[in-house]
Design a protein that fits this description.
Number of helices: 7
Radius of gyration: 47 Å
Structural class: alpha+beta
Strand order of the largest sheet: 7-30-29-28
CATH superfamily of the largest domain: TolB, C-terminal domain
Largest sheet: 4 strands, antiparallel
Oligomer: single chain
Distance between the termini: 57 Å
CATH topology of the largest domain: Neuraminidase
Number of strands: 30
Helix content: 25-40%
Length: about 575
Amino acid sequence: MEVSGRKEWDDNHSTSNQGRQRTVLCQPCECDGDTIEAEAFCETCNEFLCSSCLKAHRKLAISKNHVIKSKNEMPISKEKQKDPCTELCSVHSTEIINFYCEDHNYVGCGDCIVLSHKTCSVKLVNNVSDNYDACEEFRQTKKKLESLQRRISSYQGIIVDSIKAADEMREKIMKDIHIFRQEINEYLDNTEADLLKRIDQLTSKQVSQLKHIQKEFESMATEMRECQEKINKNTNKINQLFVIAKLTHEKIDACQISTEELASKCEIETFDFVKSHYLEKLVTDKLHIGVINADKRKLSTLNKMSLKDVQTTLLKTLNVLSAVRDRTQSLISGMAIISCDELLLVDCANDCLKLITLEKFKIVVTLNTNGKPWDITAIISGLFAVTVFTTGEILFINTSNGISKSHSIKVRHDCRGIDYRNGVLAVSFDKPACVQLLDIKGNIMKEFDIAKQCSFPHYIAFCNDDNKSFIVSCSCNDALFEFGPDGKLKDKIKSNDIKSPEHFVVTHDRAIIVCCTSISERLIMITPHTREVLPITVEDIKCPFCLAISEDQTRMFISDTSDRYIKVFSIK
């Protein structure tokens, strides 16, 4: 095998030192300013070494197992030498990864190959890596890596926003508690003031009455003292004493009557403070003045989509008509986003699937479905399920390298909508309308007759990840229907703004985005809790039929049955 980087010479050219065209210097020494001729070449490090450096190289634990070429075997230049792999094995930490197992698509060091892959087809990495950077597998790996990086970056942004939202929520709740505490304090202060004012009024009235009686008694006491003094002064004047005594006797009688009358008024009304039962219970039972309600929600950039101010901006249009194979105008009835650059379309009118690149704005691959396909759902990364209603089957499509059929399962004819969650396929059917819950092999787990509520359930989606409730759309009834895990109707979502609903998407925060085919330049959003129906304006859309939302939820793709384009929008 020719070593990349070796300077070309004739096949008859000698590989000895005498046949070499120039002297190769030791690179470590050359870095120190010394010009010492190289005596060996380390393929692992891609470095020329003199005898002293080679000796040290072989002593170090990290480099003692490197591949060394002697002076007669080493290349004559480094510039074009194929770069060696220096990646260390995760299992054998001192060994370099330089082998590839074709049977298990595995790379490892020599120890790994000997211990676990000695019966496999094993090749040197150096022998199989040529032009790998130009192959489809590497292109797909880069796309998946970029997509994952964007997703991670998106969630990092979400976490930052969520931390900010948590801080704002904390400040708001603390402010609410403080305001409520002030309201309670104000209420208690006012109540206390009212009670004090009331008791002051009650006691003041009684005190005033008692003081008036007290003055009456003081007046009578003064008069009686004066009578007593006159009697004492006239004890030796019998005639005077007689008259004074008679007059005093009349005053005594009158005073006794007055005393009894005043005495009857000498009483007070007693008062007690009776505590409020509710406030006393609050204190004695140590009840809180309030509670903090918690509602666990997934992190999502579509929190904005539960608001009324969602804004969309048209970014580009994608032509989905294949001039080579399409016999009629396309009807894109289903969409799935494979990666940041690829979109898989279900063309019902032309009986095929189409893989479109967003970068080149063109169809890359088409796949005939031998029947009319309708809806699509993701199973796992690289695997999707498509309903074909004319043949009554579900096709499983592999997208790891283009698009290809993996396998299929037979179901009832007129299968339409499809969604997948946690090992369960939900499939809606026409004629008659019903819903089946299937396992991944096609076995029917549950079947629900929904014909009384819904005539043509063209699309279906689980409400959340627990597979307990599902929603179907019906264009004939101008409504969406939510059914519980027992198949019973939970809610009928109907509004004057919902006209001929077709495809819809349930977002992470359980908002529902609906395509209403009879309403131009807008979609419908149904809020998750209140089920309020809100319009979302989308320009240049006449008849929205199907939509998809990107993984980072910043882009939206809409198919328009009025033309042959997919419209790409940004979401803000």
